[in-house]
Amino acid sequence: MATTDKASPRDRLLDAAAELFYRDGVSIGVEALCRSAGVSKRSMYQLFDSKDEVLAASLERRRPWYEAQLRSPDTETATPRERIGYVFRRVEENAAAPGYCGCPYLAVLVELKDSEHPASAVARAAKELLQGYFEEQAEQGGAADPALLARQLMLIFDGASARAGARIEHLDDGLVTRTVTTLLDAAGVK
Fold first, then answer.
1. DSSP single-letter state for residue 171
2. pLDDT digit string (tens) for 33-59?
3. Is there a contact between 161 and 56 (Cβ–Cβ < 8 Å)?
4. Which of 68, 83, 74, 91 is nearest to 140 (CA)?
5. Which of 42, 53, 158, 185 is the most buried (most CB within 10 A)?
6. pTM of the full predicted structure?
7. Per-residue b/e over 133-146, b at no fewer than 16 CB within 10 Å?
């Protein structure tokens, strides 16, 4: 990701972190991060206590964009079923993009394995928000067990994004949306 001279050192670090951590994983070194951001290590440590804090801040900063990508733009007239379906159509579309590496929040949780890591807390909150959205939509749509359906939808979401991110699965054949449709039918979601 190209950074501009007009961006603050903090913004350049967060931009570089978002790109590098997503593409290369959280084990990227401080030197590579600072080099990519065009920021000295000294400056980084003046802005953040650690690389872990940079990762957490970059994930938090990305969250509004991430959530906006998954929210139907037609929130007023779309049915709960259509809103849920929109999320999975976005997964299929995003998976086809060059450089797609799956859900960044799931990747961080899997890679870190440390529930106390500051980035784990941010990632877990993002995943819980999505599950809560699924549960809310399932309840509004008349699902018999909205909490169970939300958990099932999360398994599909995370599984699809992980498999597509690992280039094991291509999501261009509608498998994800057909699977979700089957679940929504079984749950009675309108």
1. -
2. 999 999 999 999 999 999 999 999 999
3. no
4. 83
5. 158
6. 0.92
7. bbbebbbebebeeb
For residue 87, the tally of other CB atoms under 10 A from its CB is: 22
Contact between 110 and 159 (Cβ < 8 Å): no
Ordered DSSP codes for 9-72: HHHHHHHHHHHHHHHH-TT--HHHHHHHHT--HHHHHHH-SSHHHHHHHHHHHHHHHHHHHHS-
How far apart CA 187 and CA 135 sit, in angstroms, is: 12
Q: What is the mean pLDDT of the chain?
A: 94
Backbone angle region of 84, left / alpha / beta, with phi > 0 → left and psi within -120 to 50 → alpha: alpha
Amino acid at 129: L
CA-CA-CA-CA dihedral for 94, 19, 23, 180, to nearest 10? -30
Cα-only R_g, the chain? 18
Band (76; pLDDT cuts 50, 70, 90): confident
Nearest-angstrom CA–CA distance, 127 and 132: 9
Contact present, 120 and 108 (Cβ < 8 Å)? yes
Q: How far apart are CA 95 and CA 83, in angstroms?
A: 19
CB 84 within 8 A of CB 138: yes
Query: Residue 46, Cα to own-chain centre: how many angstroms?
Result: 28
Q: Which helix (H) or strand (E) holds 155?
A: helix 146-165
